[in-house]
User: Fold this.
Amino acid sequence: MGRVQGKVAVITGSGSGMGRAAALLFASEGAKLVVVDIHEANGQAVVDEIKKGGGDAIFVRVDTGKEADLKRMVDEAVKAYARVDIFWHNAGIAGPGSIEQTTEEEFDRQIAIHVKGGFFGAKHVLPVMRKGGGGVILFTSSASGVKASPASPSYSIAKAGLQILAQCIALANGRYNIRANAICPGPVQTPLWPSFVGRNPEVISPADLEKAFLVKVPMGRMMQPEEIARAGLFLCSDDASAITGVLLPVDGGFLVT
Ligand SMILES: NC(=O)c1ccc[n+]([C@@H]2O[C@H](COP(=O)([O-])OP(=O)(O)OC[C@H]3O[C@@H](n4cnc5c(N)ncnc54)[C@H](O)[C@@H]3O)[C@@H](O)[C@H]2O)c1
Assistant:
């Protein structure tokens, strides 16, 4: 019996990195997956991989910065599986840089992909969860949403916004058996990671980037996508049945330094 056996899990940004790792892990633990991404080929490849392993999954192409897409995401999930038990909004992009470097369009895109994705995803999924007797919402925030990141303030603001949003949802929905939490990864070895290069004048190569971050990680290594996926599985499973409104760092100790 898997830890999310028979549950329907919608995971955004699951075509790559930690979302992909989470989709594969949740499927191996018995969940039916709604793989959501803006990148169609990557998302479809994850669906194919799940099906090849004997699991059940569909792909929905979504831009998490658009409410209409998020509504369609929930509608497609209900059409395929009649319910949604888990909504993990994990899609994201790297920040554009310092205040001086950031255009209005880039700022709006940060808020849209991260915060609107969580806000309007929740708006459309909450009624479905309530009707189904409960559910779990999880957001991928970041250690940069706890510890201010001057190298990319718009990213920091967006990730901090997701933490408060998780707590607002937790407060308003506990009585409906709906939990909401945020996970705060430190540096994770994913395809997104190298795109943080150049945000800081001293960080001009992926090697510089690792060096700059790893001195601040007591465990002295990058996190792996599977480690974030396993922490997310815990929060989305009944093992965490009394846990709501928490911000869980998965960062090798980064936030303690
Ligand atoms: N990698 C890190 O060090 C790190 C650290 C802390 C937090 N995070 C956060 O973790 C999450 C996952 O990142 P990752 O490192 O696995 O990156 P990744 O690039 O491997 O995966 C992100 C996925 O999100 C998708 N995506 C981007 N914009 C989208 C949109 N508008 N709509 C739908 N999908 C979209 C991408 O296509 C991609 O598949 C992100 O929210 C990121 O901000 C990453």
Notes: The domain at 8-256 is CATH 3.40.50.720 (Rossmann fold). The radius of gyration is 17 Å. Residues 12-13, 15-19, 37-39, 42, 62-65, 90-93, 113, 140, 142, 185, 187-188, 190-193 surround nicotinamide-adenine-dinucleotide (CB under 6 Å). The helical segments are 17-28, 40-52, 67-81, 104-132, 153-173, 206-214, 225-236.
